[in-house]
Write a structure and sequence with these properties.
Chain lengths: 291, 301
């Protein structure tokens, strides 16, 4: 067992290295000459070719690819992600500014999704193939089907049209002003939370269904226990393990899903940073995404 | 335990004895899986709309009509018009073509490539398996949408590039699922038997393993369809999918739609409903199909 674990852990190294190579290649392939971009792109009119060449030299663009990769990887290992070409500040700094918002959003969205998902999934499993089950399934499949950005648009529209109220634009950490923070975060949190509850609801439903067919559940029924006790104490507890695993992996992937939501709600988080960066071909910030 | 399994297996085949015609199969699916049938109906409706777009669309999807900008939903323009006076209903009808095209091709490409890799990896085992698995792990390290975003931004905004961008993140997911099934199929005695008869490897893989992993492949395919349509909408919304003036549902929600939305809320409303309904149909159908094909999830018998 010990050697097996060590073997598996060692296998992470080539995977990470491969991911790093992929990110590096994507950065290199994304159209747009970095040096040219710094001088304002193609539209900037006349650019001195000598200056351009000097900039390329300074950025290390003339080095062989392997050397460039090495330099870049060394930077990544030290959390030095280079400078954003689009704001002119170090990428690490940019990320640190945005991280609290995205983390808070991801955390609360996960919380909301769990609060919705576990009772609903359990209910659907216990009442399998009845109208309760159908309603829950339609609700959860709806969460996967309705695009988050559309819900976002409708949310903002509804708030603006009916209440004449727009969400605050500046991010306030919850420990500074919880009320302002809540006003800004509540809609994105609910939107993302509903969407992610769909996956967890379905997982809860199917694992509870599986557990309900186990012998020890029959035993629990035979002992004359009440439904409540059978379902919650015996079935749910045993069904939770895969669900918790799922919540864990979902949390990591949630950050990726925030891209669109943050764009709709104009939240200045990591997801939006990526979109803006791709949009302006600031290739250097994309590298963050090798998790 | 072993006898128990054999017994249920025996009774299972006994009840299935009268062979069902395709029509009966459909009727049975509709009866036992009403949600799945509803999903199938939505998909069918979408396909019909896409196929008959020319006759169904009351106006040209591309032609601007500056006399009718921001028209409210009315008898002439059921879903209203956008900032160029284009009829939204016509655009949504034509958008069904793009959604279906991207959904089907991306999901088919991703699942097929992934499935073949999964089977190869499982059958050959050893170093090949290790290498392919690591490769899939690398792709899995990126969130689906982020990887699609990166690929789309390399390839540039166009419908066929969106298909590639969406199908690549599907590959490792399909490969995983299919590989797991193929691993257990590979251990069956009949595989050993055809091997002993001297069948070449490619023949064993194509004729004996592939047919046995079709079920997870189909489940994966339908499961990814809805997701692919949604991803197309998201990429177009972010400006990396189809380019104007293509009538893509996601594109109709982006940029200008939001800035005019206060004045004309129908512009973002109807394309959003179209996306939700379409993806909803595919997800409902895929879910029920999985339930029907996966014996572990069948209701208590």
């Amino acid at each position: 067992m010990g050697t097996y674990i060590i073997k598996r852990l060692l296998l992470i190294v080539p995977t990470l290295l491969g991911a790093a190579i992929l990110v590096f290649l994507i950065m290199r392939v994304i159209p747009g000459d970095v040096a040219l971009l710094i001088f304002g792109g193609d539209q900037a009119g006349h650019i001195d070719p000598k200056q351009l060449a000097a900039m390329r030299e300074r950025l290390g663009l003339n080095d062989p690819l392997v050397v460039q990769f090495g330099t870049w990887l060394w930077g990544v290992v030290r959390f030095d992600f280079g400078t954003s070409l689009w704001t002119g500040r170090p990428v690490t700094e940019e990320l640190l500014i945005r991280l609290p918002l995205s983390l808070q959003l991801a955390f609360f969205a996960t919380l909301v999704s769990v609060i919705i998902a576990i009772p609903l999934g359990m209910l659907a499993a216990v009442r399998q193939d009845t109208w309760v089950d159908y309603v829950v399934r339609v609700f959860s499949i709806g969460g996967l089907a309705i695009p988050g950005f559309w819900v976002g648009i409708l949310c903002i529209l509804g708030l603006v049209i009916f209440f004449g109220w727009g969400p605050p634009l500046e991010f306030t950490p919850p420990w500074v002003d919880p009320w302002a923070n809540l006003q800004m975060m509540i809609w994105p949190v609910l939107t993302v939370g509903y969407r992610y509850s769909a996956v967890t609801t379905r997982m809860t439903r199917s694992t509870v269904l599986e557990v309900l067919r186990e012998d020890y559940i029959r035993t629990a029924w035979a002992k004359g226990l009440q439904e409540r006790a059978v379902v919650i104490r015996h079935a749910l507890k045993n069904a939770m393990l895969p669900v918790i695993t799922l919540i864990g992996t979902e949390f990591a992937f949630l950050i990726g899903g925030l891209v669109v939501t943050e764009t709709v709600f104009t939240l200045n988080g990591i997801g939006r940073f990526v979109v803006d960066a791709v949009a302006t071909a600031t290739t250097r910030s994309c590298r963050r995404w090798c998790s | 335990m072993a006898t128990n399994v054999e017994l249920t297996h025996a009774t299972g085949t006994a009840t299935l004895a009268p062979r069902l015609t395709p029509f009966d199969e459909v009727a049975k699916f509709a009866r036992t899986k009403p949600l799945g049938a509803a999903g199938a109906l939505i998909i069918l409706g979408m396909i019909v709309v896409a196929a008959l777009a020319q006759t169904l669309a009351p106006y040209d999807a591309y032609e601007a009509d500056y006399g009718a900008q921001f028209a409210r939903p009315s008898a002439q323009h059921w879903f209203g018009t956008d900032e160029f006076g284009r009829d939204l209903m016509s655009r949504i009808v034509y958008g069904a073509r793009i959604a279906l095209f991207v959904g089907f091709t991306a999901s088919f490409m991703g699942c097929t490539i992934g499935g073949l890799l999964g089977v190869t990896s499982a059958y050959l085992g050893g170093k090949v398996d290790l290498l392919l698995e690591r490769l899939m792990d690398i792709l899995l390290a990126f969130p689906q949408l982020i990887l699609a975003l990166a690929i789309a931004s390399i390839l540039g905004p166009a419908v066929q590039n969106v298909v590639i961008a969406i199908s690549v993140p599907i590959i490792p997911r399909a490969a995983r699922v299919v590989r797991a099934t193929a691993l257990s199929v590979k251990e069956h005695v009949y595989i050993e038997a055809v091997g002993a008869l001297g069948a070449p490897r490619w023949r064993i893989v194509l004729r004996h393993i592939v047919p046995n992993v079709v079920a997870p492949y189909i489940i994966m395919l339908t499961a990814q369809l809805g997701g692919a349509i949604l991803a197309e909408a998201a990429l177009s919304y972010l400006g990396l999918g189809a380019a104007e003036p293509t009538p893509s549902w996601g594109l109709m929600l982006s940029g200008s739609a939001l800035s005019y939305a206060e004045k004309a809320p129908w512009i973002p409303l109807f394309p959003g409903i179209a996306i939700s309904l379409g993806v909803f149909g595919f997800n409902l159908f895929g879910d029920s199909l999985r339930d029907a094909l996966d014996p572990k999830l069948r209701s208590k018998g």
